């Protein structure tokens, strides 16, 4: 859980800090530094609102638990989080190259019209988006105990690392492009999303909401049990210890949804998710390439 919380918090906080940093840096360069306080005010309101949403979410989850329906809410959260994580990666991959120009264009409009309220609302919505996504992801990886994720070392470390990376970006000491950086972190986010999807399917099968053609497609317990208890049971039943520790298995299960005895449907969903990501990526790259060729083609040839 902590590693997941670290990666998610790092990614979300970094996105928010980079966008807010781009805005405030631009305002300072345009000799409008007196507007930066409104940007930070909007960001601060968004952080407070995100905490409020987390508390409300916890109350709702507790209510479902009291009715004995928390398992369905948990599955729903996992599925929604999978969609949000995937969308987040694609959105940032698409906009990381143009995000600076877009933010500056919006600020120019607000400066020209003296729209202070617009600046506050804009920064508020930018940060709130990241905050709401974080709440969903924390709920998914903790089974609804959002407070545990917020207080854990993973979330705190993620915030600290994101602040350091953002600082290095704006000081010019980090030369990695935003596009490359977000693609690299996006790989881990996609793996987490795939794991959440598979775990949601596993839970639905455990409570017999959906069936399975092959409940245990294969068994890797001899190699890597997914929990220390499975390690002990295998050793007791066979007299032979698995090759790897169950502690490694529980780590990989929490991070990437590893299962030593997955069902056929889990395997299909896992592989299908990556196939869908590949197809979406290929189509998007093809579209961008065609657009670039069209934009650079001489008008005489374009006709």
Give a verbal description of the structure:
- This protein has 303 residues and is mostly helical.
- The chain has a domain at 2-206.
- The protein contains twelve helices and no strands.
- The protein has helices at 2-29, 36-66, 70-95, 99-113, 116-142, 146-151, 153-171, 178-206, 228-238, 246-256, 264-296, 299-302.
- Helix 1 (2-29) packs antiparallel against helix 8, helix 2 (36-66) runs parallel beside helix 5 (116-142) and helix 8 packs antiparallel against helix 11 (264-296).
- The longest helix is centred in the C-terminal third of the chain and has 33 residues, at 264-296.
- The chain is elongated.
- The N and C termini lie far apart (56 Å).
- The model has no long low-confidence stretch (mean pLDDT 80).
**Low confidence ranges:** none
Q: Strand-residue fraction? A: under 5%
Q: Please provide the ordered H/E string of secondary-structure elements.
A: HHHHHHHHHHHH
- Count of DSSP helices? 12
Q: Summarize the biggest pleated sheet.
A: none
As a whole number of angstroms, the C-alpha radius of gyration is 23 Å
Q: State the total count of DSSP E strands.
A: 0
What is the SS-derived class?
A: mainly alpha
Shape verdict: elongated
Give the CA-CA distance, first to last residue: 56 Å
| Helicity, as a percent range | over 70%
The average pLDDT is 80
């Amino acid at each position: 859980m902590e590693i997941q919380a670290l990666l998610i918090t790092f990614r979300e906080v970094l996105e928010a800090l980079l966008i807010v940093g781009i805005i405030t840096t631009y305002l300072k360069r345009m000799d409008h530094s007196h507007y930066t306080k409104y940007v930070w005010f909007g960001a601060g309101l968004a952080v407070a609102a995100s905490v409020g949403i987390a508390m409300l979410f916890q109350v709702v989850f507790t209510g479902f638990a009291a009715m004995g329906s928390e398992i369905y809410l948990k599955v729903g959260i996992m599925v929604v989080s999978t969609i949000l994580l995937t969308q987040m990666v694609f959105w940032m991959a698409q906009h990381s190259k143009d995000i600076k120009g877009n933010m500056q264009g919006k600020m120019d409009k607000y400066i020209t019209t003296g729209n202070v309220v617009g600046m506050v609302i804009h920064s508020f919505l930018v940060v709130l988006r990241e905050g709401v996504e974080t709440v969903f992801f924390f709920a998914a990886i903790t089974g609804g105990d959002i407070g545990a994720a917020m207080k854990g070392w993973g979330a705190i470390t993620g915030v600290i690392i994101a602040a350091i990376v953002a600082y290095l970006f704006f000081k010019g000491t980090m030369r990695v492009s935003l596009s490359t950086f977000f693609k690299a972190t996006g790989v881990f986010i996609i793996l987490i999303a795939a794991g959440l999807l598979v775990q949601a399917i596993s839970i639905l099968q455990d409570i017999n909401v959906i069936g399975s053609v092959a409940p245990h497609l294969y068994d890797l317990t001899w190699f890597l049990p997914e929990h220390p208890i499975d390690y002990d049971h295998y050793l007791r039943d066979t007299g032979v210890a698995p090759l790897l520790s169950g502690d490694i298995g529980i780590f990989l299960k929490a991070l990437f949804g590893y299962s030593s005895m997955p069902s056929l449907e889990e395997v299909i969903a896992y592989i299908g998710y990556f196939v869908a990501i590949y197809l979406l990526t290929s189509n998007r790259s093809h579209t961008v390439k065609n657009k670039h060729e069209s934009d650079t083609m001489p008008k005489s040839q374009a006709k």
